[in-house]
């Protein structure tokens, strides 16, 4: 285990008085930088990573590449391009060149317009001008390098309209069951295929074929095989995806994964990892399809030559990003109750040794050839930064949000309470000037998922709410992750029941312990948090104000409209066969007389995850019944908002709504 030794010091002249810290405000979204994608240099002396930051003038986020020495020292930018992004960088084997993804435009021969699709680029490891390597139609979404640095295997779409710049787009035609995906839109004949790219010439050769999507390729250390995950379009009705290996020269793919369950589902953001000797691979293996995200995936290790599969450390918890370390052990992040820690797993015995501890959330990590580890993690007080893990402790390497030193942050206080026969956990985010002698307006912040949880991580929106004078209660009701399968599946096909009970019990606990004013209770959330907000306003009459973001109450309205066709059938059945189940889950829509809380509905205009129809129907329902309500739509955005002004506007609008209904005299 490692403890945090310290962070960057804020130096000030002894002759100058430090200004008092100011409150977190919605416009701090224009300041918040996000650190991601750490990768070691071949000699382990440096780490390259991505920093995504907002540009107020252009009102968008762009990414740049940075490096930081392992031994310590000031991080330095490799790219500074405010109008384009660079990300996903990796060092070439000689350490002198880096390869990365970029949407920087470049004109093709004979064309008037720049091709601004995402392509593979290279540049000196010391920075400077980049050179584009690939010109694949439609761009690429992922890649891996061959061990000798001569080739890359990339993921690119193939289809009739891929790369088309026709002034009038052709009609969309599809015969797929899974025909829509947030961020990709309607899914037609397009497939995600693997290509082998010659890094010297940029020439690309298609490696895989057929009506099958392929993603997250990983080249074996000996260069003989490429492992990847794939899913057949013919299997659209299931979640089944498989792990394959294939020689880079081509041939018939060989399936490695033995079950009909999901393997390295793309939503898990994980990929296959090779052992140093190229004999084994590790990946995440899901459980039976019917349990969807309620059941945690576990580690699966295959002997590539024999196909034998073992499952070390089969915990009742979620694993993330498993990778082989140089010594043959497996590194992975393990999600527990409100915290996610980095761990080392013995590939033979399954013994687990945690490498981080405490109230923190490990987002990612990098491991060098000599075994040294850098972890990317966040706490309640700090956004994600890179730390060097050493025997003496964790040494902070980066600090990309120094402005937070000038912000006053209140206490974050863990809480547990009983809800029926269940023990429920969560925590409060308190105002910076919190006075225990006072009772405060309370906002219960409801997380998405539904199988997710509030963790000990930096949350700008919660801090802004607390700075505005609210106690923010983050409850992990039944249905949340971090506490095992039975806890998660307690809401299976039964949304808005025990999870609503648990939120209500948390509100009661906050009132009975003297923290919350019983007459000033609000709730709010996005995605399933917005759905649960809809349940809460119909469940608990104490709630006076709510914000339901990207939610839905009449789930009949999203059948065939959102991207969850498979999940609906697996969990609920079809609406015509299991009508009563669907109607039960839609009780806020069918029993609107239960709702009196003033409710702000929000949605993203291009969201295929939870489309605006959910917000629009409930807005009109409350409007018809004379219940105070408002609708905000964010144009052109998908499920997760990215436009800085919209992020700032959303939390400002939430605060204004709560102020209007919870603070009015």
Automatic annotation (TrEMBL):
Protein keywords: Aminopeptidase, Hydrolase, Protease, Serine protease, Signal
Organism: Sphingosinicella soli
GO MF, one example: serine-type endopeptidase activity
Signal sequence residues: 1-19
Protease listed as a keyword: yes
InterPro entries in alphabetical order: 6-blade_b-propeller_TolB-like, AB_hydrolase_fold, Peptidase_S9_cat, WD40, WD40/YVTN_repeat-like_dom_sf
GO biological process: proteolysis
Top-rank taxon, per record: Bacteria
Keyword Signal annotated: yes
Chain ranges of the Peptidase S9 prolyl oligopeptidase catalytic domain: 458-663
Protein's name in the database: Dipeptidyl aminopeptidase/acylaminoacyl peptidase
Region described as Disordered: spans on this chain: 248-269
